[in-house]
Amino acid sequence: MAVTDNQRRRGPRVDVDVPTVLLNTAEELFGTHGVDNVSLRAIAREAGVAPAALTHHFPTKRDLLDSVVWRRGDRVAEDVRGRLRALGGRADVSTRELVEAVLFPFVDEVNRDPADAVRWLRIVITLALSGDEIIASGVAGEGDITDLFTSAATGVPALQANSVELRAPIAMFSMLTALAAADLGGYGRPIGPAGLDPEYVEQLALFTSSGLQAG
Fold first, then answer.
1. Crossing angle for the helix pair 95-112 and 145-153, nearest 10 degrees?
2. Distance (Å, rounded) from C-alpha 131 to C-alpha 72?
3. Could you give the count of Cα atoms lying within 13 Å of 180 in the half-sphere of its Cβ?
4. Where are the beta strands (DSSP E) in the chain?
């Protein structure tokens, strides 16, 4: 039986950036199979490193998960914050502008790295829906995104305060869940190597804006 390079290898890997390989592997496995269904040992095996090498860089599964989420999440969150701040203080904000302030940073991330970013977004949505502290702490970081959204929403004449409080979470989570499912057949797989179908993004923004404003 032939012996593979991985079987011959002894000692730590020096041929790759191990933390990056581990993050890429964890993102793929977590996003494909679910966080609860993937062990650190499985990630180490898939990445081709020893379990001890994984725990050297990421001592716990929570440490690894946090790094997977915020490797992309920091950039996306800062973009969302910037867009929402730009809307704050205006009295003529449209629901479409409010929706795009949240949607477009995620769209940009998916378009940068279509297959992997969609898996990342599935991880984020799953954690956010369960109220996981990894997401809650990041959202409430420097410039609470929820507060910025609420502040910007006060400038939308068509929205009432109770609409923002009750309807906005439904609208935003539904929108991002649909974005995270762009590679699934039920949505017609409106994503390819070049990124998302612009018409899919347009319809998603339109549908979410209409739902937020309805009633």
1. 140
2. 19
3. 17
4. 191-192, 195-196
Closest by CA to 57, choosing from 134, 66, 5, 120, is 66
Measured CA to CA, the distance from residue 40 to residue 60 in angstroms comes to 8
- Type of residue at 124: V
Q: What is the pLDDT of residues 4-46, one digit of tens each?
A: 444 434 445 556 799 999 999 999 999 999 999 999 999 999 9
Residues 138 and 100 in one domain: yes
CA distances 164 to 18, 29, 153, Å, are 44, 35, 7
pLDDT of residue 12: 55
| Count of domains observed in the chain | 2
Tokens of 83: 């867009």
Instruction: Give me the domain span that covers residue 40.
Output: 12-57
